[in-house]
Amino acid sequence: MTELLLLIGAYLIGSFATAVWVSKGVFGMDIREHGSGNAGATNTFRVLGPKAGTFVMVVDMLKGVLAVRLSYLLPIYNEPDQITQLVNLQVGLGLAAVVGHIFPIWAGFRGGKGIATLFGMVLAIQPLVALCCVGVFLMILFLTRYVSLSSIIASIAFPVLILFIFREKEVFYRIFAIAVALMVVLTHQKNIARLLTGSESKVPLFKNRKNKHDRA
Fold first, then answer.
1. CA distance 98 to 1
2. Residue 71 — very low, low, confident or very high, per pLDDT cuts 50/70/90?
3. In this entry, which stretches build a coiled coil (predicted)?
4. Long-range contacts for 182-189 (Cβ within 8 Å, ≥24 apart)?
5. In the prediction, which pLDDT does 124 show?
6. Could you give the count of Cα atoms lying within 13 Å of 66 in the half-sphere of its Cβ?
């Protein structure tokens, strides 16, 4: 019963629609009516710029971290012999937050794709793996300026790291890592199509620097 309440709490945490509230509260518009129509960091980067996009991405990541941290409210799972049960609970809580982000009760069940929240979840469970994924994400973003492509490649790197580099022993977590990569690829089919046709929008990482150079 307690675990169910924590799962509901994790879902409600994930339902905080950061992109929607930022777009409406700061910019006077609904992010879901522009760009790709998703209420996530990628679309916020595309429509509202890197500052708003970075803020949304960080807050959405923190949702995943906070949801996983709910597991520590149950001391029984923190015993040394309960590691498998703890990981399973943390994965469940993280996924509940991701579902909340995708289908937020506070925003008419129309959210984003959950990538940032998913990353926050991994960061809370296995920080080193998450940091490696961040490195992959930033490298691809720096080289291509495509947030979607960076997310896809980082998500594929996740099960590779889990299975072959860190050799995670928990079977459920290994299955979860593979499922994450498949889910990200499936939810980014439109982005993949735009990448193949060259119509995917890039993040203007060097826009300000370029403008300064042009003015000089």
1. 21
2. very high
3. none
4. 184/113, 184/115, 184/118, 184/151, 184/152, 184/155, 184/156, 185/152, 185/155, 185/156, 187/113, 188/113, 188/148, 188/151, 188/152
5. 95
6. 16
